[in-house]
Automatic annotation (TrEMBL):
<dbReference type="GO" id="GO:0051539">
    <property type="term" value="F:4 iron, 4 sulfur cluster binding"/>
</dbReference>
<keyword id="KW-0479">Metal-binding</keyword>
<feature type="binding site">
    <location>
        <position position="333"/>
    </location>
    <ligand>
        <name>iminosuccinate</name>
    </ligand>
</feature>
<feature type="binding site">
    <location>
        <begin position="316"/>
        <end position="318"/>
    </location>
    <ligand>
        <name>iminosuccinate</name>
    </ligand>
</feature>
<feature type="binding site">
    <location>
        <begin position="200"/>
        <end position="202"/>
    </location>
    <ligand>
        <name>iminosuccinate</name>
    </ligand>
</feature>
<dbReference type="InterPro" id="IPR003473">
    <property type="entry name" value="NadA"/>
</dbReference>
<keyword id="KW-0662">Pyridine nucleotide biosynthesis</keyword>
<comment type="pathway">
    <text>Cofactor biosynthesis; NAD(+) biosynthesis; quinolinate from iminoaspartate: step 1/1.</text>
</comment>
<dbReference type="GO" id="GO:0008987">
    <property type="term" value="F:quinolinate synthetase A activity"/>
</dbReference>
<keyword id="KW-0411">Iron-sulfur</keyword>
<feature type="binding site">
    <location>
        <position position="221"/>
    </location>
    <ligand>
        <name>iminosuccinate</name>
    </ligand>
</feature>
<comment type="similarity">
    <text>Belongs to the quinolinate synthase family. Type 3 subfamily.</text>
</comment>
<feature type="binding site">
    <location>
        <position position="290"/>
    </location>
    <ligand>
        <name>[4Fe-4S] cluster</name>
    </ligand>
</feature>
<dbReference type="InterPro" id="IPR023515">
    <property type="entry name" value="Quinolinate_synth_A_type3"/>
</dbReference>
<feature type="binding site">
    <location>
        <position position="380"/>
    </location>
    <ligand>
        <name>[4Fe-4S] cluster</name>
    </ligand>
</feature>
<dbReference type="GO" id="GO:0005829">
    <property type="term" value="C:cytosol"/>
</dbReference>
<keyword id="KW-0808">Transferase</keyword>
Length: 430
């Protein structure tokens, strides 16, 4: 793991943050309704399927709430040393540095799930990310390995925007419009299915299973183009969920006109469309978004260009389309990291992605000016719920022979979800 210093911690000056409660420990707010302070604090936890929503109350034992930072870090290091090879800790790019400094691997969700595969001797995989990431790691890991999410309240507001029931309902409505059996779609005389479901990695295991059972596939922000090409070889159109922006940005870059990308709002009949509107559709975009990436604006890019002539702007494809269009580059977290790696000393780079990752890049490359486009510090509120207190707790439980906060995907979901993931791995760029 790249050595990290605690100096990269976010400075939580109240005037510069989106919520002053960010300076508090998460147990002060992770039992409150909603997603807590941070980028998705305004988002509504889906009411239509509360059991599916991943923003669940946390449950840190009292003793850990009282420990100061120094003691927590000492205990984490000791537990990690005791567990040795039996443990692997994964830290997402967007995770806070106080936690990431203890990780064996840092990466995006899929890189981390694959990194865990390189450690088959590890009996416990502690995933310092969010719920859907731990689910994916559980699907890809061996039956003996236990995947642990230190705080069960670390969900993902975007993943929660598409739940199994509403996607099933949408699928039935779509089947009626295009005239196919929702349980058993058949190819037409051209050998193509009417619709293929494509889910972004940032979705529940149940939705990955939904795709696996219906000829569909998973994509990441790195391979969305390859996956859509795969889908269009097999179908006339795609139902893309839950992130409308990744779907739109990818399809637009492939030359699909915006008129052929109707939005599907799950709270409205036919997603808010008429059956006629849907006839020409090439991609039906689920009405979901990432609360972190929707904060970026074209005005921020204009300001960066005014203040830093020659600045290079790179944003994540979960940003709205006008932001991606105004940037010099768009790419996944890994692509952003590689972009910075390939830059030169003295370069000025404005980044449109989560603040923890941008600050870490800025600390790793002090000879370049690297800053976040958003002047307000507003981390991913759900990722932020993993605090060193939670990490110390689950590790010390492991030392004591107990497994807390295990994420287990039932076999009936894991098997079809893996089919959709395997299709993604087998899809090759044209
Ligand atoms: S950054 Fe966005 S997509 Fe990623 S976990 Fe946070 S809310 Fe979900």
């Amino acid at each position: 793991m790249t050595a990290l210093s605690i100096r990269t911690r976010i400075e939580l000056a109240p005037t510069k943050t989106c919520n002053t409660s960010l300076a508090e420990n998460p147990w002060a707010f992770d039992t409150a309704p909603g997603y807590g302070p941070g980028s998705s604090q305004e988002d509504t936890v889906p009411g239509f399927a509360p059991t599916n929503a991943t923003a669940r109350p946390g449950q840190l034992p009292e003793a850990y709430r009282k420990m100061d930072d120094e003691e927590l870090h000492r205990r984490i290091r000791e537990a990690k040393a005791t567990l040795g090879e039996k443990l692997v800790i994964l830290g997402h790019f967007y995770q806070r540095d106080e936690v990431v400094q203890h990780a064996d691997f840092i990466g995006d969700s899929f890189q981390l799930a694959n990194a865990a595969l390189t450690r088959p001797e590890a009996e416990a995989i502690v995933f310092c990310g969010v719920h859907f990431m731990a689910e994916t790691a559980d699907i890809l890991s061996t039956a003996e390995q236990k995947v642990i999410l230190p705080n069960l309240a670390a969900g993902c507001s975007m993943a929660d925007m598409a739940d199994e029931d509403s996607v099933e309902t949408a699928w039935e409505e779509i089947a009626e419009v295009y005239g196919f059996d929702p349980e058993n779609p058949q190819p037409d005389e051209d050998g193509k299915l009417p619709v293929i479901p494509v889910t972004y990695m940032n979705s529940s295991a149940a939705l990955k299973a939904f795709c696996g059972q219906r000829g569909g596939i998973v994509c990441t922000s790195s391979n969305a183009t390859t996956v859509l090409e795969w889908a269009y070889e097999r179908a006339h159109r795609v139902l893309f969920f839950p992130d409308q922006h990744l779907g739109r940005n990818t399809a637009k870059a492939m030359g699909i006109p915006l008129e052929q990308m109707p939005m599907w709002n799950p709270r409205q009949p036919l997603g808010g469309n008429s059956a006629e509107d849907l006839q020409e559709a090439k991609v039906l975009l689920w009405h979901g978004f990432c609360s972190v990436h929707k904060r970026f604006t074209v005005e921020q890019i204009d300001k960066a260009r005014q203040e830093h002539p020659g600045v290079k702007v790179i944003v994540h494809p979960e940003c709205p389309m006008p932001v991606v269009d105004a940037a010099d580059e768009a790419g996944s977290t890994d692509a952003i990291r590689k972009f910075v790696e390939a830059s030169q000393p003295e370069d000025v780079i404005a980044v449109g992605t989560e603040i923890n990752m941008v600050n870490r890049l800025a600390a790793e490359y002090p000879d370049r000016t690297i800053f976040c486009l958003d002047p307000v510090i507003c981390p991913c509120s759900t990722m932020y719920r993993i605090h060193p207190g939670y990490l110390a707790w689950v590790l010390e439980d492991l030392v004591a022979g107990e497994v807390s906060n295990q994420i287990t995907v039932p076999e009936r979901i894991a098997t079809p979800a893996k089919i959709a993931l395997d299709r993604m791995l087998a899809a090759k760029p044209r």
